[in-house]
Design a protein that fits this description.
- This protein is mainly β.
- It has two helices and eleven strands; from the N terminus they run αβαββββββββββ.
- It has helices at about 1-20, 40-45; strands at about 30-35, 50, 65-70, 75-80, 85-95, 105-110, 110-120, 125-130, 130-135, 140-145, 150-165.
- The longest helix is centred in the N-terminal third of the chain and has 20 residues, at about 1-20.
- The protein is globular.
């Protein structure tokens, strides 16, 4: 009986530890770039008004909020990285936009559009690109689009570039 109580206690502790660890997203070992806009390192260079307390489940507390209109892209963000060899990757993120409106994100390498993902849901939704090849030693940027003729707010979180073997 004591053994059963001891095992039950250990199981409860393990479940509690797992639940706490699972509270926010942790990038995989294949992640080349990740930003959830939670720390000062992740928000360096961003105006504070772009960071909002609104995030998907397991996305921490903050997201990038872009309110745009006619000028595109609405915002640009440098990834501050290059890859040492041609690398197959996927772009993954969570996003949402004003009801009935559209936003987007693109992955741009050395000025060339590589990936473009429309954000069309008014609720947090996971998005993922097809696999693309990023050439070696080229600067990587993200372009964010929000709205068109009408100002729209689009939210982006857990932006991740993942190596796709």
């Amino acid at each position: 009986m004591k053994l059963l109580s001891l095992l039950s206690g250990i199981l409860i502790l393990l479940l509690s530890a797992c639940a706490q660890k699972d509270a926010t997203f942790f990038p995989s070992s294949n992640t080349l770039y990740f930003n959830s806009f939670e720390t000062s390192d992740e928000t360096r260079g961003l105006d504070h008004y772009l960071i909002k307390e609104d995030a998907p489940k397991k996305g921490g507390k903050h997201s990038l909020s872009i309110c745009g209109g006619c000028i595109v892209p609405s915002f640009e963000l440098d990834a501050f990285m290059t890859l040492s060899e041609d690398t197959p990757v996927k772009l993954k993120l969570w996003g949402k936009t004003d009801a009935g409106m559209t936003g987007a994100i693109s992955l741009v390498v050395d000025g060339n559009l590589i990936v473009f993902i429309d954000i069309e849901s008014s609720k947090w939704k996971a998005y993922e690109s097809e696999t693309v090849i990023i050439p070696a030693n080229q600067p990587i940027q993200f372009f964010f689009y929000s709205g068109g003729f009408v100002p729209v707010t689009t939210y982006y979180d857990m932006i991740e570039v993942v190596k796709d073997f």
